[in-house]
UniProtKB/TrEMBL annotation:
Protein name: DEAD/DEAH box helicase
Gene3D superfamilies per the UniProt record, alphabetical: P-loop containing nucleotide triphosphate hydrolases
Motif (Q motif): 1-29
Residue intervals of the Helicase ATP-binding domain: 32-201
SMART domains: DEXDc (SM00487), HELICc (SM00490)
Start and end residues of each DEAD-box RNA helicase Q domain: 1-29
Pfam families per UniProt: DEAD, Helicase_C
One GO cellular component, as annotated: cytosol
Organism: candidate division WWE3 bacterium RIFOXYA2_FULL_46_9
Helicase C-terminal domain sequence ranges: 228-342
SUPFAM superfamilies the record matches: P-loop containing nucleoside triphosphate hydrolases
InterPro entries linked to this entry: DEAD/DEAH_box_helicase_dom (IPR011545), DEAD/DEAH_RhlB (IPR044742), DEAD_box_RNA_helicase (IPR050079), Helicase_ATP-bd (IPR014001), Helicase_C-like (IPR001650), P-loop_NTPase (IPR027417), RNA_helicase_DEAD_Q_motif (IPR014014)
C-alpha cells in the first residue's frame, strides 16, 4: 500500500511525496481511510507509531476539499502541541491553510491577534484553550473536527474538567478522533461522551517498542550514578541520548554534572520558559547538545529523529511512563536502545 491509494488531494499528496513518505505505517493504514469517510476514531497507540501523521493527513485532505471546515487538536503539553504544528506544516505546505498555536507560557495578545485572522486549524493545550474560550476569543462550537491526543496524560496532569468542558461545547455534528496510550475507566467515560459509533483500533505496546533493545545497568555504589552514566556516554555508539530524571531539580543536577565532565548536555523540564524549552529542543535536534536530561511531563512531544539511546537514570513511576520513555528511540522502523539504572 502507498499513500496514493487513499485518493488524496493532489496538493497534499505532493507534500507527502516531497518528504519521502511512501508507505503508510500500520496505524496510518488502519485509520486514514475511516477518517476520510468521516468516521469517529478511538485509538490506543503509543509514541513512535506514526500516529500524528495518521490523523493529520486525512484532516488536511478534508480542509483542502472544504475550506469552510475547521479542526481543533488538543494535546497535554506545549512540546507535543508544537510538534503537531511542525508536522502539520510539513503536510500543509503551500496549501494556504492557516494554523494557530495556543499554549500557556506564550503571549495572550499574540495568540488573540492570530485568532482574529482567517484560520482552519488550531492546536492547543487545554488550559490556555479554556482561558481564551472564556474570554470569547475561541468559539468551540465552530469546529467540525476535534482531535484529543494523549488523553491519558491530560488526565494525569489534572485536565479532566477542562477536557469535559471542551467536549460539552462542541457541535453535535462534529467528527471526533480520540487517542490514548491506555484505556482506564475514566478515559472510556470521556470516550463514550465524545464518540458516535467509532472505529476502534489498538496498536499494542509490544509493537510500538519492538525495535528497542531493553537492558538494565547495575550501578556500582563505589562509582555512583553520574560516573556510571559518564562511562556509558563516552562510548562511540551513544550519539544522541535522552536521559530521564524523576524531578526537575534532579534533571538540572544531572545536566550540570555531565557538563562538568565535558559533555554537551542540558535539562528540559516545566520550570523552563517556553522560549528556553524550544531553544533547547532545537539545539538537541541540531546536535549542538548531545544529551538531553528530561522529566516525564516535559518529554511529551519530543519528536527528535535518531535518538540512539534512552537512559532511565531514575526509574519511571509506572509501566506506561516506561513505555512512553523508551518510545523516544527506535522510531518508525529504526533500531534503538533503552537502559535502566538499578
Amino acid at each position: 500500500m502507498t499513500f496514493s491509494d487513499f485518493k488524496l488531494n493532489p496538493k497534499l499528496l505532493k507534500n507527502i511525496s516531497a518528504h519521502n513518505y511512501i508507505h503508510p505505517t500500520k496505524i496510518q493504514a488502519q485509520v486514514i481511510a475511516p477518517i476520510l469517510e468521516g468516521r469517529d476514531i478511538i485509538g490506543q497507540a503509543a509514541t513512535g507509531s506514526g500516529k500524528t501523521a495518521a490523523f493529520l493527513i486525512p484532516i488536511i485532505n478534508a480542509l483542502l476539499n472544504d475550506p469552510a471546515k475547521k479542526c481543533l487538536v488538543v494535546a497535554p503539553t506545549r512540546e507535543l502541541v508544537k510538534q503537531i504544528q511542525t508536522e502539520f506544516r510539513l503536510f500543509a505546505q503551500n496549501t494556504f491553510i492557516n494554523d494557530v498555536l495556543i499554549v500557556g507560557g506564550a503571549s495572550y495578545s499574540t495568540q488573540i491577534r492570530l485568532l482574529k485572522r482567517n484560520h482552519q486549524f488550531i492546536i492547543a493545550t487545554p488550559g490556555r484553550l479554556i482561558d481564551l474560550y472564556k474570554r470569547q476569543n475561541v468559539i468551540l462550537e465552530d469546529f467540525d473536527i476535534i482531535v484529543l491526543d494523549e488523553v491519558d496524560q491530560m488526565l494525569d496532569m489534572g485536565f479532566i474538567h477542562d477536557v469535559k468542558l471542551i467536549i460539552s461545547k462542541l457541535k453535535s455534528t462534529r467528527q471526533s478522533l480520540f487517542f490514548s496510550a491506555t484505556m482506564a475507566s475514566k478515559i472510556k467515560e470521556i470516550a463514550n461522551s465524545l464518540l458516535r459509533n467509532p472505529v476502534t483500533f489498538e496498536l499494542t505496546q509490544q509493537v510500538a517498542v519492538k525495535n528497542v533493545d531493553q537492558n538494565v545497568v547495575k550501578v556500582d555504589s563505589s562509582k555512583g550514578k553520574i560516573e556510571t552514566l559518564h562511562e556509558l556516554l563516552i562510548k562511540t555508539e551513544f550519539q544522541r541520548v535522552l536521559v530521564f530524571s524523576r524531578t526537575k531539580r534532579g534533571a538540572d543536577e544531572v545536566a550540570l554534572a555531565l557538563r562538568k565532565k565535558g559533555h554537551k548536555a542540558d535539562a528540559l523540564h516545566g520550570n523552563k520558559s517556553l522560549g528556553q524549552r524550544t531553544k533547547i529542543l532545537s539545539m538537541f535536534k541540531r546536535d549542538e547538545i548531545d544529551i538531553l536530561v528530561a522529566t516525564d511531563v516535559a518529554s511529551r512531544g519530543i519528536d527528535v529523529p535518531d535518538i540512539s539511546h534512552v537512559i532511565n537514570y531514575d526509574e519511571p513511576a509506572t509501566y506506561m511512563d516506561y513505555i512512553h520513555r523508551i518510545g523516544r528511540t527506535g522510531r518508525i522502523g529504526k533500531k534503538g536502545c533503552a537502559l535502566t539504572f538499578i
